[in-house]
Design goal:
Layout: H1 2-12, H2 14-29, H3 31-44, H4 49-59, H5 66-75, H6 84-95, H7 97-103, H8 105-109, H9 111-139, H10 148-176, H11 179-186, H12 188-196, H13 206-209, H14 211-236, H15 243-290, H16 293-307, H17 313-323, H18 328-353, H19 358-381, H20 383-386, H21 391-420, H22 426-454, H23 465-476
Helix pairs in contact: 1-2, 2-9, 2-10, 2-12, 3-10, 3-11, 4-9, 4-17, 4-22, 5-9, 5-22, 6-9, 6-12, 7-11, 10-18, 14-15, 16-21, 16-22, 18-21, 19-21, 19-23
Length: 495
């Protein structure tokens, strides 16, 4: 392990590895603060389950437009750099809302103000995620391509470690601190991330991408120096130079100044035009690639697999905390078990399932999810108590197994996304694939909020929750009917 880390350090540098690991650790550690947000909506704002889920769906929408951030950073450099400035902007956006929410009671007590700040925070987190992915892709090109898998592995390890730490400490923090204190504590991580952005050096792209613009700046500098020299030489000739010749030289220098200003304006317009054309070309290439059936059909299935299933996670959170009276520390432990289940699912998939056809994996994943959702039916109907099984065991088992099975479905998504990306736009197209996945999850949450509202499920009134879960189980089988959209012979090795 230590030797592996030393090789990575020698290949990429300590500052780059630190920044990548810190960003992914922060992404995982977000469970620390978002658990507090859930309690803020439930206990302080007194929102119903459907309203809370609707608010979460809005707040997480920035994760559904990730390609936009990728295209902007690819096509419009800031002061000649395409990554670090955007990473600084993203970090500031993810940092600023937390101190405001922690120090200003009005901002966290107003539903719409809270929603706005949470959306801005997710905008920064999603942008940072895209930018650091692009930095990783650029870092492993050419001579360091053999380290691609290693860099991805350490990124996932950092995020998993952050998720476990955030889940463990989040429950403890809710038991011992006020919610506004938790908001302030979490802001420490983005602050460290902001400072760490200055440790990474990035080469300027001005001279390569826009050589004529750099030539303009150098020629302007030369013209400026020559004109100042001319003025100095003219000032030395007091008696030998006539007033008429001085006027002519001043007129000439003014013409040169005006001419250089016109050139700068034209070149600036040309630069803006180049940026526009670059954005246009990137968007066109992205749309053209996405319209190909071999790409469109699988992505349509993964989108459908999220949209067709109502997400009742927020409703179950209300049920577990209000009806089952499970404390925050236990729910944090359940999330840790979920992270361990996710890691177990990744290991099992890579060890035993990657040669299996993706259609078969996805079919059994849906069947497994339906079976695990039946555990929620057992929990809500209280049948588990008849057999002497405690609510805590049911929640722990459901959390671990569901995350593991969901990973069986997510791994094929990652594999297909990587295999289907055409050369040249891999990063942006992969961000689009992830955005489709995130958008499907967001819309699934909207559907779940609508179902909860339709069934009149509210805080303290869970009479129709059992019916809602039955509907969810039936909907899980819908994507199986559309598995023909997945390439027939595709496996975890070849598409």
């Amino acid at each position: 392990m230590i030797e592996w880390l030393k090789r990575l350090r020698a290949a990429f540098g300590a500052s780059f590895l630190w920044l990548v690991c810190l960003i992914y650790f922060t992404q995982g550690f977000r469970s620390f603060v978002w658990t507090a947000v859930s309690y803020q909506l439930k206990d302080t704002l007194k929102l119903s389950p459907s309203s809370s889920q609707f608010l979460f769906s809005i707040a997480f929408f920035p994760w559904s437009i990730k390609p936009l951030y990728g295209i902007l950073s690819d096509c419009i450099p800031i002061k000649g750099r395409k990554r670090v400035p955007y990473l600084v902007i993203a970090t500031v956006l993810s940092l600023v809302p937390w101190p405001i929410l922690g120090l200003n009671a009005t901002s966290r007590s107003s539903m719409w103000l809270l929603t706005t700040f949470l959306t801005v925070q997710n905008l920064g987190s999603a942008m940072a995620d895209v930018v650091v992915d692009a930095m990783i892709a650029e870092a492993v090109r050419h001579e360091r391509v053999s380290f691609a898998g290693d860099l991805q592995s350490i990124s996932w390890l950092a995020m998993a470690f952050g998720g476990i730490c955030g889940s463990l400490t989040g429950g403890f923090a809710l038991t011992n601190f006020h919610i506004h204190t938790i908001f302030l504590l979490f802001s420490v991580l983005p602050s460290i991330q902001l400072l760490s952005c200055g440790l990474v050096e990035e080469n300027s792209v001005d001279s390569k991408a826009f050589p004529e613009f750099s030539e303009l700046k150098s020629s302007d500098a030369v013209n400026g120096n020559s004109s100042s020299l001319d003025e100095d030489s003219f000032s030395e000739k007091k008696s030998n130079t006539s007033i008429t010749r001085r006027k002519k030289s001043n007129k000439g220098s003014k013409k040169k100044t005006v001419s250089s200003k016109v050139q700068v304006t034209r070149k600036a317009d040309s630069l803006a035009s180049q940026w526009f054309q670059s954005l246009k070309a990137a968007t066109f290439s992205l749309c053209r690639a996405f319209k190909q059936p071999i790409i469109l059909r699988p992505m349509a299935w993964f989108f459908l697999a999220h949209v067709s299933i109502p997400n009742l996670s927020t409703v179950m959170f209300y049920y577990q905390t209000e009806f089952l009276n499970l404390e925050a520390s236990f729910l944090g432990t359940a999330r840790v078990v979920g992270w361990l289940g996710l890691m177990l699912g990744t290991f099992v998939y890579n060890k035993y399932l990657k040669r299996m056809k993706l259609r078969r994996i996805l079919m059994w994943s849906q069947v497994g999810l339906a079976f695990l959702t039946l555990l929620d039916i057992v929990l809500v109907s209280r049948v588990n108590l008849t057999f002497g099984i405690s609510d805590r065991i049911m929640v722990l088992c459901g959390s671990a197994l569901s995350d593991a099975v969901n990973q069986f479905k997510f791994m094929p998504f990652l594999i297909l996304s990587g295999q289907l990306c055409p050369p040249g736009i891999e990063g942006t197209l992969f961000a689009l694939f992830m955005s489709i996945n995130n958008l499907g999850s967001t819309l699934g949450s909207f559907v779940g909020a609508g179902l909860a509202s339709l069934l009149s499920i509210s805080s303290g009134s869970f009479d129709n929750l059992l019916l809602g879960i039955v509907v969810q189980v039936l909907c899980i089988f819908i994507p199986i009917a559309f598995l023909f959209l997945i390439p027939k012979e595709a496996t975890g090795i070849s598409a």
